[in-house]
Structure formats: C-alpha cells, structure tokens
Amino acid sequence: MWADGGSTMYSVAQEWRDNASTPARIQLQIANNGAGALFGTATNHPFGIMVENSSALYINASKYVGIGTTNPFVPLHVSTAISYTFGAGGTTVHRLRTDGGTTESALCPISYNVSALFGGYIGCSALAMTSDRRLKRNTQSCPIYRVKRFYDSCEGKLYDWIESENKPGQEIDLIAQDLVSAQLADLISIYYRDHIEGGEDPSLKPAKQQLNVDYSRISAYNMKMINTS
User: Fold this and answer.
1) Nearest CA to 224 among 115, 140, 162, 157?
2) In 10 A of CB 157, how many CB atoms?
C-alpha cells in the first residue's frame, strides 16, 4: 500500500511478473477511497498497449510517451500525421495540423517553452529570440579564433532538396555536418526524425536524428567578425 503524496492510498489488487533475475512487475492498484485505479509497471520497465500484436502506445522508463513509435525522443512523440487542438472555455487557443505536406496553425498570444520542427517554409513579419541576461550565466566574449574557424572552414553550398515536391528550385545553405567537422557544434541543433538512416560516421550522420543549422547564433558570429575587421 502506498500514498500518492496526498490523502489517497493505493493497494495492489493484482500483480504479474516474469522469471528474469530482475523481474518486470505489472500491477493493478486500486485506491481505497474510490479515487480510481492505476495500471502499469511497478519497476523501471517500459509499458505499452498493443493493437494487432503491435505497439500502439508506448511509455519508456523516462516516462516519455510514444504513439506509433517505441523510441519516444520527447515527452510526447507522435510519429504519424497528426492534429492537435487545445481549447479553453470552448475557444480554440492553439491548433496545429500537419497532414499530406500541409501545415496550418492558429495561435493567440500565448507563450511556449518547447521546440518545433517544420519541414516547409515559415513566413512572418518579425521573429524575436529569447536573449534576456537574467536567463543566462557564465557569459563571456566569444573568442575570435572560433569566428575565424567558421569563416575559414565552412562555406555556402548550392543544392536541391531530395524531397523536392514542395521545395522546387536550387537553394543555397550551410551544411550542418560541415559545422560539426569544424568543431562548431554550438551552431547546430538536433531533432528526432524517424526516417533518417545512419551514415558511415555516426557522429556526423546519426540514425533517426536530423541536424539543423541555427542561423540565429551565426548572426552573433557575423557581428563579431564585422567588429574585428
């Protein structure tokens, strides 16, 4: 019997376990005051729900939830085409729908401390980045050798997108792997993506991880280079 931090006490009504040296224990626990029940693992093992002998919902040991994937990379990871609707008092405050290459969203002035990954173009009249001194520590000047390394080792490349249905025409950009090779990993970010296969060098081409260039940080490099010219 255990408490949930409040007044509710839970008792184990049923338990299943395997024969391993460190067995996985699955329990059905019922509250003694009619507050409900809990079902899942009582040990540090993942838990999931199957449909047609295949995982439909998966919760790993870090309590990350995966829908359509058994390797959730964030607290809620959905690997298929999805729609989200969040409402308050019957009014939609946020809606994001991605399906068939089309993404649409509606936002009111609310603040999110999350990351989002878009495969298409984003257009807006202004983009503000969080940069309040009160949110930072260990602040110091960026050494000029790091800036010179960026300009000496990296260059813009012309290319065509492999997935080019919604991105026609040749483009110019930096290559994230070039920044990693130049020991400038602080200028990239990494997001989980199911369908990216690993390359010969996992440090440059990791499986199921997409490398992205953070151009907001590069702007600080550009300013430093201009000031020292």
Assistant:
1) 140
2) 11
Whole-model pTM? 0.49
- The structure tokens listed for 22 are 């460190």
Q: What is the phi/psi pair of residue 26, to 5°?
A: -110, 130
**Range of the structural domain that residue 31 is part of:** 2-78
Give the alpha-carbon dihedral of 157, 158, 163, 168, to 10 degrees.
Answer: 150
Q: Are residues 140 and 74 in the same domain?
A: no
Residue at 112 is within a domain: no
Question: In whole angstroms, what is the distance from residue 219 CA to residue 127 CA?
Answer: 14
Domains of the chain: total: 2
Domain assignment present for residue 121? The answer is: no
Last residue of a domain, one of 36, 55, 78: 78
Domain boundary among 40, 61, 78: 78
Give the tens place of pLDDT for each residue, 29-52.
888 777 788 888 888 889 999 998
Which residues have a Cβ under 8 Å from the Cβ of 25 and sit 6 or more positions away? 15, 16, 17, 41, 42, 43, 45
| pLDDT at 94 > cutoff 70 | no
